[in-house]
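Reviewer comment 2.1 asked that we show a complete input and output for one of the modelled complexes. We chose the FE2/S2 (inorganic) cluster case, as it is the one discussed in the main text.
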Amino acid sequence: MATIELVSDGPLLVKDVTQCRNSRGEAIAVKDPFYLCRCGGSANKPFCDGTHKKIGFKSAREAPPPSGGSSSASGGKSAAAAPCVRIKKDGPYLVTGVPDLKCDVAPPDPAQYALCRCGASKTKPYCDGSHRVIGFKDDKN
Ligand code: FES
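Response of the prediction step:
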């Protein structure tokens, strides 16, 4: 079953997800499992290269995330979508088909949610739009 785990002060650990696409819709080859950068500093985006340790990335939430949705996604139609991580241009990871996000606060919509990859969100692991404020750029993806 596809899952995403949050590594404390580190990346996203993605399991059983075979589809990853850049902002142009092109497939990115992934292994199983793979680690996605969420500090914003990796030189090998979207993958983690260990930079979070060098820059002292902290993954603690600083503000409450959007109100959590129902965590009883089992049996819902939304779980039928193929697990996929899509990269938004200079923005978050848009996750579909992975209702099993290992987080203390369920996503507002388990069928589709946006995870921060710039490192600046105050509502980690969710994107709060801070990528625009800090001018996050990822020209490669
Ligand atoms: S990607 Fe970090 S706040 Fe949106």
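The beta strands are 3-6, 12-15, 19-21, 34-36, 84-87, 93-96, 101-102, 112-115. We note this here for comparison with the apo prediction described in Section 3.2.
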